[in-house]
Design goal:
- The complex is a heterotrimer.
- Chain A is an all-alpha fold.
- Chain A is 72% helix and 0% strand.
- Chain A has a domain of 232 residues.
- The termini of chain A are close together.
- The N terminus and C terminus of chain A are likely disordered.
- Chain B is an alpha/beta fold.
- Chain B folds into 2 domains: 232 residues, Rossmann fold (3-Layer(aba) Sandwich), CATH 3.40.50.300; 237 residues, Rossmann fold, CATH 3.40.50.
- Chain B is built from 17 helices and 21 strands.
- In chain B, the strands form 4 sheets. In chain B, strands 13, 16, 17, 18, 19, 20 and 21 form a 7-stranded mixed beta sheet that branches.
- Chain B is globular.
- The two termini of chain B are 43 Å apart.
- By secondary structure, chain C is mostly helical.
- Chain C has a domain of 205 residues.
- Chain C has a two-stranded antiparallel sheet with strand order 1-2.
- The longest helix of chain C is centred in the first third of the chain and has 30 residues.
- The chains are: A mainly alpha, B alpha/beta, C mainly alpha.
- Chains in contact: A-B, A-C, B-C.
């Protein structure tokens, strides 16, 4: 039982209140410690990384550019996972979106006002079509969508690799296409390098929130995600829900590919977008699967990544440190509710 | 007459044991003493504390105060493994077997002295030896997952015999057995008693207790009420001790007059559940409850799920008509649209969503077609309020998570939800399983209300009291075959019991 | 195609399939006990960097290989906290662990080989017997041993019981948490050894990108082999043969782009786990956390 000090603050309760935040503090501490071999002032370096997006226009632009595809994948994750479909193939969907955009940019000349919306729709459609078979296989045969979607990521990478080294290659030296015409470029935000893709993703975040919580369809999705058997018993067409959700989730991630291709690279390059899906998943977890939290959380996440890359460029501090920090952060966040329940203030003593 | 052992002479026992789970006191200063060579029955309602008592004796839980006694001395059973070493073994109501291992492997699971690579030949021989000695024939190499319920219980008992257990604790062993298997088991228990073993038998079945027990202990609300010799007791005496009042839940008002001339609503023809079972023929009319009795494992799930459209489990699908329309081959949503409703056996897994709110649960399966795209919150709240009021669900907070409701309130919510919108036909499977008397009566009232409103109800239950209390007509499901329904007033409980064990003639 | 080519494909397949086989052997135990280790991909990376650093420093391939074992045990402790003790989502934990491993491996490599210095190269193990690299033989032997252990030993039965019916296992006196932790350790060691093999026997230097889905392929191969180590081993070799096809078939079918062959193993794995080939009877308690002493109603 706790040691009661009459009149004083109970040591036991203080420790219990503090305990769930321990992993969080630990993550920051570890990050600072591993900066030591590379920087004589690790705490300052850490602060610089964290504040990079706010420190300059370049930093803000770079962050906003990075946020777009990550947030798109995070939204895709939310739509899929909340419906009970643990789809992990967002890397592939990003590439499908990028590929659709590229093909349209190279072979369908049209004025900018028509091109941007149409290419967006094409990206959404192709990415959705890429993801759809996984949902269908799961609904029809009950396999593991986790592994199937993971494997297909690598297939997508190879497809893109084939196209940029073969049919649509520009010249003979680099595995990439030629530069897109200027009419296809996403316009920039006023005063910044960053493009309008972020606005599209923001609109999608709102749309996802509306669908999940204000539409009947969202109810079906959420209930299916919570208990598929009970949803079936209630007459919901769980198979159709899975297929639709998979396609929509894929399409959302595909928009990330659209934005990067038209706003950042302006061509399709072999090896683009590696691991973007997993960053999106991590952000979605940090958001506790709430679509309206995606943009702010993704901003912080991307800011850290961009800051770390600047550190690497300017001071040879390995950017990988931020991967470590962000993973530890997520692990800390995952442990918190469970620790709170078991050890936090107000927890029952073990029976 | 078995001598009454006390704290110092008892072969096994509990001395002044108390055990709490959070705020609930499951077992309250209980003392129970067992002698060698005795069959001791433990009688009590659901939630009375029987399970906890057994689990303490078996080492799954430790008492908060008091101790377990062996040969007069206190002993600490830190885990089931320790209990096994002391010769105490338990057969749980839900079998603790691993489906993907063989019988022999299940028997030696957890035994340390079998060595790193157990000599399975020796194990198999020993299992066969024990099996033959006690009439528990089973193939040591068969996969447990392939065995019938009766055979699985044999494996559970063989586990205890293999470890030379002298105290065998059996939790509702005959709940899932046919009549013949039950008789076999009771004979085995007598045999074990003759060999000097002690058997602690936990059961509801008063007839079995009277047949085989030496002494009987009644437990209610965590306290021992009394321990008696069997002597000349009859079932009524036991029932009175157990519940504290005469008979079971309040008897229903007698149904006056003949069958109401309701229209035929549900009609099932020509299907077969298993390859070797006879074809199913069933008609249910509006305004009647047809009770389908039968021990668990005779095809109840297959019957219910096939008609409700959950899963087409029958070998021959047959033809199902609802209010004149063919529904064979239609999906769940289509059947619901035609007025079919379903109360599943597993309320936590199939009938509700624990992590969702009561509102979200109450809306499950509600017709939404006219609503269009948007989630109509005011209408949903109104509907949920009406459902919760009709079902007397407590607490009346529709934003509460369903996982926080007690079993009784959850089931009331489910029944009221399914009964909403005046369904044509309702299939209810084990609707009051695991509920306390109060909730049972409330749910019976809801079902009767539904029947009086003209709904055709198929009630599937293993509880004979429930069948007799609610049904207008009764049929018996045995090995996938359904007897022709007979008016409840023309049947006695013994007739039904006989049909359930396959020994009575089907009408 | 004559016999020489088929033999070449099989021998190459054996060689290429070893990392997946190693990782899969450990994972079979993990999954049979109910733990899905999506972090296997990260384990390969950690094994790779550890073996690289140790082998480059000590010039001993053996020491490099052995050094991964303590690293694997450490990782198993961390993963075990989330997979088993906290009951967190195994898929999410695995994904995050992969990111963490990527960070740790890159960081360690940066520390060891600062940019500007020559990337270290270690001498890969070249000895062969009948055309098959020496390390392949113990791996095949391992496959057979693992099968015997899982199917016939007391530990194997405990593992399978814990993954199929943890309640029954606990009632039989087994400590579900301890058995699962032991199985998880095997899974992590398998993954780390696979990473060591990649460095010490195949590639000889370290890049962030040496692991391209072999860990995930191991997960797929476990399902394909229905959680039976012998079948899993064969499936791993099959996958390796598909990989090997890219070298042989190119000569025979010159028109096809190389990416088609590179994609074959991934496509095969995707199909294997899609459920097309029959419902998988996976261990019933896989990914379901177990809280000891669950109250029986």
């Amino acid at each position: 039982m706790s040691n009661h000090k009459p009149g004083g603050v109970d040591k036991g309760t203080l420790w219990r209140r503090f305990m769930p935040f321990l992993p969080l503090v630990g993550a920051v501490a570890v990050c600072i410690v591993i900066l030591l071999p590379f920087s004589r002032q690790p705490v300052q370096a850490f602060m610089d990384i964290c504040l990079y997006p706010l420190a300059s226009r370049a930093g803000l632009s770079a962050t906003l550019i990075r946020v777009t595809p990550i947030a798109a994948c995070a939204l895709g994750t939310i739509v899929a996972w909340k419906s009970g479909l643990y789809y992990l193939g967002f890397d592939g969907c990003y590439l499908a979106g990028a590929l659709a955009t590229t093909l349209m940019a190279l072979f369908c000349p049209m004025p900018a006002w028509a091109f941007l919306p149409l290419s967006l729709m094409a990206a959404f459609a192709l990415a959705g079509l890429w993801a759809l078979p996984v949902g269908w296989l799961r609904a029809r045969f009950g396999g593991s969508e986790v592994l199937t979607s993971l494997m297909l990521n690598y297939v997508a990478v190879l497809i893109v690799q084939y196209t940029v080294t073969g049919p649509i290659r520009a010249g003979q030296d680099l595995p990439e296409t030629r530069l897109f015409p200027a009419t296809t470029w996403l316009p920039r935000l006023p005063g910044l390098h960053a493009h309008w893709g972020i606005a599209v993703v923001a609109a999608c975040a709102v749309a996802v929130a509306v669908v999940l919580y204000r539409l009947n369809a969202g109810y079906f999705m959420r209930m299916t995600g919570l208990n598929m058997r009970a949803a079936r018993h209630a007459g919901m067409n769980v198979g159709a829900i899975m297929v639709t959700v998979c396609a929509v989730a894929g399409g959302l991630a595909g928009m990330g590919g659209w934005a990067d291709t038209l706003g950042l690279q302006h061509r399709l390059i072999d090896g683009v977008g590696v691991g973007i899906g997993f960053h999106g998943i991590v952000v979605a977890i940090l958001c506790a699967m709430e679509p309206l939290a995606v943009l702010p959380v993704a901003f912080v996440y991307a800011g850290l990544m961009v800051g770390a890359q600047a550190m690497q460029r300017d001071f040879q501090v390995p950017a990988a440190i931020i991967n470590i920090f962000e993973s530890l952060l997520v692990l800390a966040v995952m442990a918190m509710p469970i620790l709170k329940q078991r050890y936090g203030a107000g927890a029952k003593d073990h029976a | 007459m078995t001598a009454q052992p006390d704290r110092h002479s008892a072969a096994y026992g509990l001395h002044d044991v108390t055990r709490r789970f959070g705020a609930v006191t499951a077992v309250d200063h209980v003392s129970l003493y067992l002698a060698r060579g005795e069959i001791h029955a433990l009688l009590g309602e659901n939630g009375a504390g029987k399970s906890t008592l057994m689990q303490i004796l078996f080492g799954l839980y430790q008492p908060d105060s008091g101790s377990v006694i062996m040969d007069g001395a206190p002993v600490r059973l830190a885990s089931p493994q320790v209990a096994f070493r002391h010769g105490i073994g338990m057969v749980h109501q839900e079998f603790m077997l691993v489906d993907t291992l063989t019988v022999a492997q299940n028997v030696i699971l957890g035994l340390k002295d079998e060595g790193l690579f157990p000599n399975m030949r020796r194990v198999r021989a020993r299992v066969r030896e024990l099996a033959t000695a006690h009439g528990l024939e089973v193939d040591p190499d068969s996969m447990v997952g392939d065995l019938s319920i009766g055979m699985r219980q044999r494996v559970e008992i063989l586990k205890l015999l293999y470890r030379s257990c002298r105290l065998l604790i059996l939790d509702e062993p005959t709940a899932v057995l046919t009549g013949a298997e039950t008789a076999h088991l009771l004979r085995l228990l007598g045999q074990l008693r003759a060999q000097g073993c002690t058997v602690l038998l936990v059961t509801h079945k008063l007839a079995e207790i009277l047949e085989v027990a030496d002494r009987i202990t009644v437990i209610r609300k965590g306290r021992i009420i009394q321990t008696v010799q069997k002597g000349n007791l009859v079932a009524a005496d036991l029932a009175r001790m157990m519940i504290g009042r005469e008979g079971g839940p309040a008897a229903p008002p007698a149904r006056q007059g003949a069958m109401p001339a309701g229209e035929g609503v549900l009609s099932v023809r020509g299907g077969r559940i298993h390859a070797e079972s006879p074809p199913i023929g069933l008609d249910i009319h509006g305004g009647e409850i047809v009770g389908i009795a039968g021990a668990d494992g005779n095809g109840q799930t297959e019957l219910a799920e096939h008609i409700a459209g959950i899963a087409a489990r029958w070998v021959v699908p047959g033809q199902i008509h609802l209010a004149g329309q063919v529904i064979t081959g239609l999906g769940i949503a289509a059947r619901r649209a035609l007025g079919l409703r379903y109360i599943p056996a597993d309320r936590g897994r199939d009938g509700s969503i624990a992590a969702a709110t009561l509102l979200e649960n109450a809306v499950l399966g509600a017709p939404m077609a006219e609503d269009g795209l948007w989630w109509n919150l005011p209408a949903r709240r109104a509907r949920t309020g009406a459902i919760m009021a009709a079902g007397h669900v407590v607490p009346p907070d529709m934003d509460l998570q369903a996982g926080n409701l007690s079993g009784g309130n959850l089931q009331k919510l489910i029944v009221a939800r399914e009964a909403r919108d005046g369904p044509r036909c309702m299939i209810a499977v084990y609707p009051t399983r695991g509920l306390d008397i109060g909730a049972v009566e409330e749910i019976w009232a809801l079902l009767r209300q539904l029947r009086d409103a003209g709904c055709a109800i198929m009630l599937i239950s293993a509880d004979l009291d429930e069948i007799m209390a609610l049904s207008d007509r009764v049929a018996v499901l045995y090995r996938g075959g359904l007897s022709s329904p007979v008016q409840a007033t023309e049947l006695g409980m013994d007739d039904v019991a006989a049909m359930m064990s396959g020994t009575g003639g089907a009408a | 195609m004559h016999n020489g080519v088929i033999l070449t494909i099989i021998l190459t397949g054996l060689r290429l399939g070893v990392p997946v086989m190693l990782a899969a052997m450990g994972e079979v135990f993990g999954e049979s006990a109910g733990v899905l280790n999506v972090g296997l991909e990260g384990m390969l990376l950690l094994g790779g960097i550890t073996s690289f650093m140790v082998a480059a420093s000590t010039h001993s391939a053996l020491l490099g290989t052995l050094a991964v074992i303590p690293v694997a045990l450490l990782a198993a402790e961390l993963l075990g906290v989330y997979y088993i003790r906290l009951g967190a989502s195994q898929i999410v934990t695995g994904i995050v662990f992969n990111l963490l491993s990527l960070g740790v491996a890159s960081y360690a490599y940066r520390l060891y080989c600062p940019p500007g210095t020559l990337a270290a190269r270690i001498q890969t193990v070249e000895t062969t017997l009948w055309g098959i690299p020496l390390p392949v033989f113990p791996v095949i032997a391992l496959c057979i041993i693992m099968h015997l252990v899982l199917m016939h030993s007391r530990f194997g039965m405990a593992v399978r019981a814990v993954g199929e019916a943890p309640a029954a296992a606990e009632a039989a006196g087994l400590d579900v948490t301890r058995v699962r932790m032991a199985a998880l350790r095997l899974s992590c060691i398998g993954g780390a050894l696979a990473g060591a093999y990649l460095i010490v026997c195949q590639i000889g230097l370290f890049r962030d990108s040496i692991v391209q889905g072999q860990g995930f392929s191991a997960l797929a191969v476990v399902i394909f082999g229905r959680w039976r180590p012998l079948a899993v081993g064969c499936a791993a070799v099959l996958l390796g043969c598909l990989d090997a096809l890219q070298f042989s078939l190119q000569a025979y079918v010159p028109g096809l782009p190389p990416q088609v062959f590179l994609a074959l193993p991934y496509l095969a794995a995707a199909l294997a786990t899609s459920g097309l080939f029959g419902r998988m009877h996976q261990p019933a308690a896989l990914t379901i956390p177990w809280m000891a002493g669950r109250r029986v109603q």
